[in-house]
Amino acid sequence: MVAPERWLKSWQEGRIGFHRDEVHPDLIRHEAEFLGGGPHRVLVPLAGKTVDLAWLASRGHQVTAVELSPLAAQAFHREQGIDAVPQAAGDHELWRSQNLDYLVGDCFHLQRPAAGPFTRVWDRAAMVALDPERRARYLAHLRYLAPGAQILLNVLTYPEGAREGPPHSIPPSEVLAAYPDATLLHAAEDAGAGWVERTWLATVPAASPG
Ligand SMILES: C[S@@+](CC[C@H](N)C(=O)[O-])C[C@H]1O[C@@H](n2cnc3c(N)ncnc32)[C@H](O)[C@@H]1O
């Protein structure tokens, strides 16, 4: 089964163990470094129903979420008590509320906003959700959507072969290959899960010509 269908099925079956009920602590902890000098145009790719969207919007940022599953969109808006009427928007369905555009559809079809590229990207469980081939496409697409943006990147690393992703293991060498200026902000080992969670701050490189 191809990955997008697998994600849609996970939402249908309520298998969303990745979801957190609280704002991610590293977003709060590193707000000043990541979001200082705003407001920013913040992209949250592969957003699920993360409460981080509402938190970012409440801080005055212009937030864009993109997520495959319409069930995630419905759950997010219901749980956050946000009224939004879905409307067609090209390849996506747009749920627009005050300063949040929640787009249902494939992140690979997302176009650069008319207002200009995104200036911040919050990647929590997005890079790790994609297999190596899709990860390469994702990184290329981010370079198109958000060249020069600051990215706060939260990934997991576990010994090779220890489990079958997602989540996929993203070692520091892969982070640095994608984002050469990446700085490690936080690392925490979860012995029970058998992985290390790391949060990095980096610049999204500009798209290479051609
Ligand atoms: C591991 S979850 C992370 C969700 C969210 N970032 C969080 O922290 O709770 C990955 C999400 O990406 C979505 N997804 C997977 N492939 C996608 C794609 N190509 N375009 C948009 N969303 C996608 C899945 O439906 C799933 O909700």
The total count of strands amounts to: 9
**H-E string:** HHHEHEHEEEEHEHEE
Tally of contiguous helical segments? 7
What topology, given as strand order, has the largest sheet?
3-4-5-2-1-6-7-9-8
Q: Return the CATH class.
A: Alpha Beta
Strand content of the residues, in percent? 25-35%
Bound compounds: S-adenosylmethionine
Rg result:
16 Å
Under CATH, the homologous superfamily reads: Vaccinia Virus protein VP39
Between the first and last Cα atoms, what is the distance in angstroms?
Answer: 32 Å
Kindly report the average pLDDT value: 95
Largest sheet: 9 strands, mixed
Helix content: 25-40%
Q: Can you tell me the CATH architecture? A: 3-Layer(aba) Sandwich
Basic shape: globular
Structural class, please?
alpha/beta
Q: How many domains would you count in the coordinates?
A: 1
| Low-confidence parts | none
CATH topology: Rossmann fold
Explain how this protein is built:
The protein is of the alpha/beta class and 210 residues long. The protein has a single domain (3-11, 39-191), classed as 3-Layer(aba) Sandwich (Rossmann fold). 28% of the residues lie in helices and 26% in strands. The protein is built from seven helices and nine strands; from the N terminus they run H-H-H-E-H-E-H-E-E-E-E-H-E-H-E-E. It has helices at 3-12, 25-29, 31-35, 52-58, 70-80, 132-145, 172-178; strands at 41-45, 62-67, 87-89, 92-97, 100-104, 120-124, 150-157, 183-190, 195-203. Strands 3-4-5-2-1-6-7-9-8 form a nine-stranded mixed β-sheet. The N and C termini lie far apart (32 Å). The mean pLDDT is 95. The site of S-adenosylmethionine has 20 residues, from helix 1 and strand 2.
